[in-house]
């Protein structure tokens, strides 16, 4: 045990020194200098425009690569968002790029730098995902998604930080430390794709890839102020990468795109699907992008706006949205109404039961697999650690606890969640899968009855929380987790930022009147301290309808801008 602890501390020092040495070398090579006018112009181009200019010869790929590398190193200095650096080989590749060959002319991401979550396996580089036991075990080959991105012409240049176990909306592990929110220091960028969201929001990358199992590309986009679209399973390549929970299929993780702007999101997602990812990854459905589905919703909005039906989940009955998040929702609704769209409340079937089923399926092993590689002295996120320890308590203790919560304290929500938070038997797990499928059927029927085109709701009850705040709020994830359970397509776009005056809690607000999950979320809510944090909106479409989701995000964005609400990018 003692020897293992020393190995843990040794590998932390070695990996951090390795990263620091690379950064020092890069800065000496000029990557630490301010951006030139040419580089600033390049970094402000949308992905599609930059690729077009590279192909035409108007922009040198090395200029674009150098610009993003400089900004990424600035982001690292300010937020600690990077893990592995591929800048040296990437820059050499960008300098050697010949855009005039017939092969290169057809590549949709030619010469464009791409950042990826630390889970991605890239030959010659570690995928530690924050575990010191994974340090100095570099991947022996590129994952299929990396091969596909390279074949599309993209140049991977950095990997980004994640929380330990990747079951947290915080972004901390012992190996790399805390990643800061790029807007307000001391606050989390979200998780588990926190480093990626931070880098994109900062402007150190424009296109990236993350993973999502309970909100892990959506909550970071909401917390940090960037764009993401959680795909349904089988739409985006995922195999051959590193995970903390190998074999967990109760709530499958999905790889999904994250970007700095909405035009980048559409272009990047379509570019990936144009590469026929099913030829790289056996889990991907052979589904080309269907422009007609995307265009149909846009045509309806243009020609008969009243026929565009938008459902709204105002409150999931577990945690009422905070003033800041409700204001973002109201701004969105006002904008959509101004366009003439038909808005109606969507009565989601028992969101609390969705949270109960999803949370029990995700950690049906009580966290054993995620902690198999944990070394002596290695810290888990405090909130996740509390959850896992609770799951391992004797069953009778939780039954008694739940009885008191329900009957003495009147907390039906918390009682429902803790009553059966146990390691599951095979029979219990099968029963949960059956419940999952039953919930999917009920939600499908409700959606069909409502005849809505898409759904909007908040991504989370609150904006970001201060570091270590997840200790109390770890169970507050229902607004995103529901759509992992359902396997629906769900996107995030930033709407506004926290305003210390507009978003303060009402004077008569009483936190002790809330259920335990809501109290955990609100204990960190302080509009004055959170002033300037991004606040987003979630746009949802049915399973495997990424085309509809993207079109709906465009409609929402256009409506907000037409109504005078424009989100200001950081470092634009």
Automatic annotation (TrEMBL):
- Organism superkingdom: Eukaryota
A Pfam family matched in the record: Amidase
**Record GO terms (molecular function):** amidase activity
- Any idea where the Amidase domain is? 65-550
Cite the Gene3D superfamilies for this sequence: Amidase signature (AS) domain
The reaction(s) catalysed by this protein are:
a monocarboxylic acid amide + H2O = a monocarboxylate + NH4(+)
Q: Give EC number(s), comma-separated.
A: 3.5.1.4
Q: Which UniProt keywords apply?
A: Hydrolase
> In which residues is substrate bound?
166, 192, 213-216
Keyword Hydrolase present in the record's keywords: the answer is yes
Active-site residues are 117 (charge relay system), 192 (charge relay system), 216 (acyl-ester intermediate)
Which family does the similarity line name? Belongs to the amidase family.
Q: Would you tell me the protein name for this molecule?
A: amidase
């Amino acid at each position: 045990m003692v020897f293992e602890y020393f190995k843990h501390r040794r590998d932390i020092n070695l990996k951090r020194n390795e990263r620091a040495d690379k950064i020092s070398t890069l800065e000496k090579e000029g990557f630490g200098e301010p951006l030139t006018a040419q580089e600033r112009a390049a970094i402000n181009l949308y992905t599609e425009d930059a690729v077009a200019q590279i192909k035409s010869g108007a922009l040198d790929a090395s200029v674009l690569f150098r610009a993003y590398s400089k900004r990424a190193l600035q982001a690292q200095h300010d937020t600690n968002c990077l893990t592995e650096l591929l800048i040296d080989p990437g820059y050499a590749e960008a300098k050697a790029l010949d855009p005039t060959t017939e092969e290169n002319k057809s590549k949709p991401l030619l010469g464009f730098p791409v950042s990826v979550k630390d889970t991605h396996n890239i030959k010659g580089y570690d995928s530690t995902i924050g575990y010191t036991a994974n340090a100095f075990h570099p991947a022996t080959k590129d994952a299929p998604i990396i091969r596909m991105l390279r074949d599309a012409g993209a140049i991977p240049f950095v990997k980004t930080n994640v929380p330990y176990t990747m079951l947290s909306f915080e972004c901390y592990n012992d190996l790399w430390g805390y990643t800061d929110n790029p807007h307000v220091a001391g606050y989390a960028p979200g998780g588990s794709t926190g480093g990626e969201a931070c880098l994109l929001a900062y402007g150190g990358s424009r296109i990236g890839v993350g993973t999502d199992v309970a909100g892990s590309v959506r909550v970071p986009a909401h917390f940090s102020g960037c764009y993401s679209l959680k795909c349904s399973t089988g739409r985006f390549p995922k195999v051959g990468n590193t995970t903390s929970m190998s074999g967990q299929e109760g709530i499958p993780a999905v790889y999904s795109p994250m970007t700095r702007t909405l035009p980048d999101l559409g272009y990047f997602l379509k570019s990936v699907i144009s590469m026929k990812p099913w030829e790289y990854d056996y889990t991907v459905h052979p589904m080309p992008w269907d422009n007609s589905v995307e265009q149909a919703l846009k045509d309806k909005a243009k020609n008969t706006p009243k026929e565009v039906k938008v459902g709204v989940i105002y409150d999931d009955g577990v945690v009422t949205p905070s003033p800041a998040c409700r204001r973002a929702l109201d701004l969105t609704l006002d904008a959509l109404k101004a366009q003439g769209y038909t808005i109606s409340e969507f009565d989601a079937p028992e969101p609390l039961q969705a949270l109960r089923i999803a949370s029990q399926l995700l950690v049906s092993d009580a966290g054993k697999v995620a902690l198999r590689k944990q070394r002596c002295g290695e810290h888990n996120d405090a909130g996740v650690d509390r959850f896992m320890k609770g799951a391992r308590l004797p069953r009778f203790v939780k039954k008694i606890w739940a009885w008191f919560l329900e009957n003495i304290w009147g907390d039906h929500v918390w009682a429902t969640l803790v009553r059966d938070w146990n390691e599951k038997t095979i029979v219990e797990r099968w029963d949960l899968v059956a419940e999952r499928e039953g919930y999917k059927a009920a939600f499908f029927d409700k959606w069909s009855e409502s005849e809505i085109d898409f759904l909007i709701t908040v991504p989370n009850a609150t904006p970001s929380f201060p570091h270590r705040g997840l200790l109390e709020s770890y169970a507050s994830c229902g607004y995103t987790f529901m759509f992992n359970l359902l396997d629906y397509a769900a996107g995030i776009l930033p709407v506004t930022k926290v305003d210390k005056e507009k978003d303060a809690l009402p004077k008569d607000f009483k936190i002790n009147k809330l259920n335990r999950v809501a109290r955990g979320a609100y204990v960190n809510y302080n509009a004055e301290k959170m002033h300037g944090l991004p606040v987003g909106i979630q746009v949802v479409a049915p399973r495997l309808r990424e085309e509809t989701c993207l079109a709906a995000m465009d409609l929402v964005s256009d409506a907000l801008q037409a109504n005078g609400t424009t989100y200001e990018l950081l470092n634009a």
